[in-house]
Design goal:
about 325 residues; alpha+beta; Uridine Diphospho-n-acetylenolpyruvylglucosamine Reductase, domain 2; Uridine Diphospho-n-acetylenolpyruvylglucosamine Reductase, domain 3; Uridine Diphospho-n-acetylenolpyruvylglucosamine Reductase, domain 1; 3 domains; 5-stranded antiparallel beta sheet; 4-stranded antiparallel beta sheet; about 25% strand; binds flavin-adenine dinucleotide
Amino acid sequence: MNTMRLQSTAEAFARFRSMAELVELVELAENKAWPLVVLGGGSNVLLSPRLEGLVIQSSNDSVTPLGLRNGRQLVKVGAGKNWHEWVCESIAYGHGLENLSLIPGSVGASPIQNIGAYGVEVGEYIESVIGYQVSTGQIRHLDRPDCRFGYRDSVFKRELKNDFVVTSVIFALKTEFIPELSYGPLASLKTDYPDTAGNCITPDKLIAKVCEIRSSKLPDPGKIPNCGSFFKNPVVSRVLYKSISGQFPAVPNYPVASAGSVKLAAAWLIDQSGWKGKRLGKVGMHDQQALVMTADDGATLDDVLALRDAVRRSVFERFGVELEPEPVLVDGSAG
Ligand SMILES: Cc1cc2nc3c(=O)[nH]c(=O)nc-3n(C[C@H](O)[C@H](O)[C@H](O)COP(=O)(O)OP(=O)(O)OC[C@H]3O[C@@H](n4cnc5c(N)ncnc54)[C@H](O)[C@@H]3O)c2cc1C
């Protein structure tokens, strides 16, 4: 149940479909003094060998159109719906999610780290997130501003960490299809929009192109265990950036909203630190995509953490940049 395929055994496991079933499970966990762990598709977690608690997973895959509001088409989707399936279905209702095709995982996890790819972040298309706050026993609807979406970040990773179970997400889709093609490899589609033969890019074609690019760049977790990007792209001060670019003029950099900061490419830093294609025991950094850690059969959480620390140390020693891991370490002890 985790794409890194780490062996992990939980004290107890249950699926819930309705809010009533979820509340019952939360009460059971409280009575047994079990920490509660929420699992989606397991594509962004590092599981410890033993989870002392109750692991719960939504099986609600309902899709309910709610009509138009402020020019956007609202659709409520259950947390247990497979993300890619939802993206493919979403184009029957509206647009905006096409660039997020083929990201593994569930709808319920999509707001947690505000999933993003190819110039789009899911937060732009979320109207609200519905769920249950464990500490207060409240059913809550958090509107987009309350979710405080940032780069791979949200309130669910901060104030509400380990305290909020997402049961459904209401998406606000654009009624008009205006493809986002700023990401390099998608730019070639621009010339086809509309092309001289009168064929326009369709949402289907955009989804197919995104799937093609992703399949050619990222190892398929079905074949090679991995959990996607292992580190976030670091945002550093302009002062640090200047010192790095003085020494390494080729350092790739991207603008960020806050003045005085620059985003660097974690993959480049890892590659330059000698870790691309390098292994440590049963884990390694992928030889085509340095940002992805892959695991062999029998790899343990300790193997993963040892390589994580070794990569972070090398990058810090060479560039003075602290890399922050993207996957969530789940040991069941946080409650
Ligand atoms: C090959 C590959 C490529 C990837 N590419 C991308 C990418 O391009 N962009 C990107 O942003 N991410 C990417 N990821 C990361 C991952 O797919 C996303 O983070 C995804 O949203 C995780 O979904 P999941 O259901 O598997 O969550 P899980 O891994 O099961 O859980 C992740 C976190 O969310 C919490 N969570 C899950 N469901 C709920 C819920 N219902 N309520 C409350 N908390 C919940 C968990 O407790 C955990 O903290 C990639 C991963 C892989 C393996």
